[in-house]
Design brief:
Blueprint: H1 4-20, H2 26-30, H3 39-51, E1 55-56, E2 65-66, H4 68-76, H5 85-96, H6 102-117, E3 120-123, E4 133-142, E5 145-152, E6 156-163, H7 170-184, H8 189-194, H9 201-218, E7 226-228, H10 230-234, H11 237-240, H12 243-254, H13 258-262, E8 273-276, E9 287-296, E10 300-309, H14 314-346
Antiparallel strand pairs: 1-2, 3-7, 3-10, 4-5, 5-6, 8-9, 9-10
Amino acid sequence: MLSPRQQRILDAIVAQYISRAHPVPSQAIIDDRALGVSSATVRNEMARLEEEGYILRPHTSAGSVPTDRGYRHYVQSIRDPQLPLAERRQLDQSFRTIDGEPDNWLNLAAALLAETVRSTAVVSSPKAAPCRFKHLELVSLQDGLVLLVLVLNGARVRQVLVTFEPALGQAMLSTIATKLSALFSGQNSSEITERPKELTDVEDKVTEYVVKMMEEEDGVDDPEPFLNGLHFLFSQPEFVNDQRLVRSLMELIEGRHLLRSIVPPEFTGDKVEVIIGRENRSELHDYSIVVARYGQPRQAAGTIGVIGPTRMHYDRAIATVGYLASVLSRLMSGLYEGMADDYREVN
């Protein structure tokens, strides 16, 4: 644990390095009158911070820069950062000026996040995996032709035409749909397939179609995430002077591996997550990532995040990612509820 004085000195080093992108000399910390300590005390405390791995000096005569451990301690000291009210209102207004289509929302969120944080923003489309059975309808059309309507979590609706010989009446079809809806509620395709059950031939045929549709839904590739602000990232001093850093990120983007590389596999919570430098499980060891989930976890959820150098304005990034995630969650929640209401009105 750092003492309060060491914490203040570390915070000063981090803040100055984030702002200036140059190693911070001890004199710059001494000149910070808010610390209220002598020059000898500052130098001694900086030496201890270096010994404990919170800061390092790139060269013997250079100033200090934070290490990943130093940034981590700094981030953990940030207490629930919030965007100013005026900025939150401005972001809200931006969403009111566009058509209410999910792709438009996600594209705008990426643009606003990149512009606000001045770095690269990534927003994925919402998806639930694996999909889960919610409701089934069987609607008689004509001459044994039946419309099978499958409702999945996230208010996703899939339809297929099925022929039954001999033709079945609507009453029988409704009875089958009610039975299977109760039997399969909340299950994924594997659970439906593996669960022992006694079904009639007709019910078994309907079940086969249901499983096939669900497997096809689960097999849909994730669409390309919405990406914005690469020019902000690559104009940072770290990347201007080291093309290796640019190449490592571009390889992930071109190989369509960026989203899997920046999102931890165990990441399911509703809080903003910060991944710093070598905490990354991919080769992005010179980057930091601030990421959050949006949507409805049990229905459909996506990811919104920002990628930048470890010398990132963490408080602003955390506040912006968190706020835009909440905006997208509200928008998606309203969309799902509207789709469900429309479906109930039709049926």
